[in-house]
Amino acid sequence: MAAPPEPGEPEERKLLGFLDVENTPCARHSILYGSLGSVVAGFGHFLFTSRIRRSCDVGVGGFILVTLGCWFHCRYNYAKQRIQERIAREEIKKKILYEGTHLDPERKHNGSSSN
Amino acid sequence: MAHAAQVGLQDATSPIMEELITFHDHALMIIFLICFLVLYALFLTLTTKLTNTNISDAQEMETVWTILPAIILVLIALPSLRILYMTDEVNDPSLTIKSIGHQWYWTYEYTDYGGLIFNSYMLPPLFLEPGDLRLLDVDNRVVLPTEAPIRMMITSQDVLHSWAVPTLGLKTDAIPGRLNQTTFTATRPGVYYGQCSEICGANHSFMPIVLELIPLKIFEMGPVFTL
């Protein structure tokens, strides 16, 4: 996230000058789905009502709602994944440290299941 | 350390900093959407042909633009408070280091396992070796173990200073006559830089902090205590 751009790489682009879409997890995904939702909602509203200004308002509202919804959904899953990764890392470390000793988690688990 | 012209946060080296980066991303997305909405409203205001100057009643709109910001603030405040209380947890530190701010250097005391005390001065440009970082490298780094909770007790001997290491998500004021405490657990080894973050005189910009985080096994062998 904080690595300097390599010489051959293009400069990082930020939405509205501050949202780093490329390096923020879930941002690109949310903005893209938000844009799609905005187009669908706005265009759909226009097809039914033929009101241009109100359809633009619906499009903007759709963008905000869809982006927010996708963002929270993706971030929730990302947080769950990070927790699972942390647990897995800890278990691997414990396994390496205690393999073959009386503290081996696998031995404890096998011992309790055989009882 | 930060690279030239860096605006964003540095990569996290502690779980607290990871949480802070996550919260920062969350708040930034909300800010982006609000900015987008405001820009759209501005665009509508500038392009409208409607010019009724007698509008006096807009109860529904006023209700919406009162309730909605309150909801947004709650969405921002809840994760913020969660992290705030997380930073205050004290989880049985393995090591306590004292950091004392002076004009214009830091003194570090490792008193848990002996009486190691040393000063940490910025390396003057004339004394830099090739590869050293100007205005950041010091003569004596603070050597600490990774994967172990560490307590830093921070104070000052003269004026206000602030002991800050951005990659660990740490910034604690060094106040004369007061002992402030901060705890952290570093997750990966490396050399991490910080700078004094409270104006303290002419050389405020020239009293950096450098942490050298090494694996616990190597730290236990005692490289720090052979100084």
From TrEMBL, chain B:
Q: Which reaction does it catalyse?
A: 4 Fe(II)-[cytochrome c] + O2 + 8 H(+)(in) = 4 Fe(III)-[cytochrome c] + 2 H2O + 4 H(+)(out)
Q: Which GO terms describe its cellular component?
A: mitochondrial inner membrane
Show the stretches that span the lipid bilayer.
Answer: 27-46, 66-85
- Biological process, per Gene Ontology: electron transport chain
Residues annotated as domain Cytochrome oxidase subunit II copper A binding: 92-225
This protein's membrane topology, according to the annotation, is: Multi-pass membrane protein
Q: How are cofactors bound according to the entry's free-text note?
A: Binds a copper A center.
Question: What is the required cofactor set for this protein?
Answer: Cu cation
What coarse category fits the chief subcellular location reported for this protein?
Answer: mitochondrion
Give GO terms: molecular function aspect only. Answer: copper ion binding; cytochrome-c oxidase activity; oxidoreductase activity
Could you tell me which NCBIfam families the record lists for this protein? CoxB (TIGR02866)
Name used for this protein in its record: Cytochrome c oxidase subunit 2
| Species this chain originates from | Homo sapiens (Human)
**Gene that this sequence comes from:** COX2
